[in-house]
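We emphasize that the prediction below concerns an isolated chain of 540 residues; any contacts that depend on oligomerization or on bound cofactors are therefore not represented. The input was used exactly as deposited, without trimming of termini.
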Amino acid sequence: MTNNKPGSFLDGKSIFAIFFVGLSWFVWDGYMKKKYPHLYKEKTTQTTDQNTNNTVDSATKTNSNVNTATTTDIIENQKQPNNVAEKLVSYKSNNLNFDISSYGMGVKNIVLNKYFDRDKKVKTLPTNLSTLPFETNVLGNNKKLNFSISKISENRYQGVANYNGIPITKTIEINPEIYSVKIKVSSSGFNNSFKGIKFLLPGEKVESETSIMMPMMGGQELFVKYENTNERLMGDAIFEESLNLKNVSIVNLGETYFSMAMVNNSNTYPTFNQINENETVLGQLNYPVLNYDENKQDILVTAFIGPKDVNFLNKIDKGLSEIIDYGWFDVIARWLLKLLKVLYSFVGNWGFAIVLMTLIIKLILLPLNIYSAKSMKRMQRIQPQIKEIREKLKDKPQEMNMKVMSLMKENKANPVSGCLPMLLQFPIFFAFYRVLGQSIELYQAPFMLWLQDLSLKDPYYILPVLMSIAMFFQMKISPSAMDPMQKKIMMFMPLVFGIFMLGLPSGLTLYIFISTLFGIIQHFILMRDTSLSQPVLSKA
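Result of the prediction step, given as a token string:
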């Protein structure tokens, strides 16, 4: 019965711990492989030629009357109108600036006046491709529509284009407070040669930082919501796959903190086609004519150009906030963000809001922590009796286990109670890490001294070092039922965890550091509990 000898690392608790850690990693790794396949496989090049793309596109058409765009159609759409120069109409507000092009009434030169990039320059969204965001054209047409644009009011513009004698009117109404643009495209008096309307959303490859824990920081992402489900492609995966979807309600193409999106407000649902060309991606939202007898088509969509702020997104459409990827623990993450916002409204600093939120979480878990600490202290006190029982009954394992369990029950000691607070904090940890990595509220949010961006790692690694020291001290003073070998191994955990935290957001490190300090204070308070000095009831 070697496994039951004192000092052996492979006792029941160690095996359980190893199994739990292994299972957790296996589940997490499987989830990440499925959600972010581009992090696990080598980059592949698209070997599918243009004709194959057309074939796949055709296979996804709903019926012969629904003419979605082919690859050729998308690419040829980038051609300019014959002998017509581009004209720009400028729009400016406190929040948002951009130019409206006569080519399809797409937008370009987008500036978000109240936000800055990592280089501290005013944030701009890329529109330097030949196709512009929210550009409108006719399905099957190989050239851009040319609109004559007029200003109706301060935030309202109207353009009129002609396609083979068919008038097409596009009206846009801008709400700069929430970075939204309501778009209406109307056409009438057409025949079977008019296939319908399409909107275009282009993007180009953006370099991003990646890791297993933080799949993407600052890179490209594509999100499409359709038929009560969604597809999300990130980073290189966008350029390795091509989506062809029906009944689409939301399309988003952007980066971690900023987005360009379209929400369907029409009575009919469009289809979506995606084509990748070199290091660019072009999404197309298609509204084919379904009933020629009506002889008119009115399309309504809402465009979004700005920061992925939950408040802005929800005001446009309740489902639009889904473009923010909070991962497994989405519900917990959104509640944590709400709590952070409430706390921030009182203290005016996101770092101090994190500190207060950490204390609130620790207070909520305090009863469980007290129970766990008491149970672990009792386990520590009965270790000599457990050792005695194991030595005495080492040849009778069944009787030995019954004696040990009876002793634990009499002394109200639970060997796994120490894991319970940690297990409950895992979802909070991962949810909060996603909040820090995805929420615009914490983007470039300063704390104090050297911590000037809580969404980035500590530039001088001071906080991870302090966190590791605090964790080491906490483990040193905490009661433990582990044998000396296990204790020595566990003493390396603060170092491993500190190294692990070096590249993660400093806001998350701040959360763990404050949580550890609170745990140390809690320990000294509990040590004054006289109930833990009761005599051991031995059943040996």
